[in-house]
Amino acid sequence: MSSNSTKKHWEEIYQTKDMVHDVSWYQDTPETSIDLVLSTGVEKSNAIIDIGGGDSNLVDKFLELGFKNISVLDISAKALQKAKTRLAGKARSVTWIETDVLEFDTESRFDVWHDRAAFHFLTKEDDITHYVESAGKFIKPNGYLIISTFSMNGPKKCSGLDITQYSEDSITRTFEKDFSHVRSFEEIHTTPFNTKQSFLFSIFKRN
Question: Whole-model pTM?
């Protein structure tokens, strides 16, 4: 799927669906992501980016915790606008980046790169390689990559799109060039319509 087609797909998703009731990935409080970010020892002034953050509540929680250098990247302008509307005046404290992660470029470098359920939508080897290279480029030395994907026990599709499932071994091999694997674990996510999805959460440290 081309970048334009991908953008059109996600704009339609966010235009037609309510985050709370209609999308499987919704979390009222993304506790696991918050716990993993805090486990890195990141300072409140350090740079954090949420890849594919969309309308996630994670940015709200970061602001509540006092983090002051937060970026949210998503391909969907509609998703980002929903988050901005929800945050109202607080949205001015966040850097909003509307782009395909595969086209992302910046002079900024990040202490923590968080991605919950965006990376696994990449199914072409070249796209996966490009993402891995971008993470290696934009994460500071000794910074952290926190990434979650569908596990080998999880769904094979999401929102009508194919995904790539990962095991601890395969995700470690994927990022081994620039990152040291810290740990991985599976977690069951209960969707708003009470179905179960198995996610693999992994944390890496930039070499």
Answer: 0.93
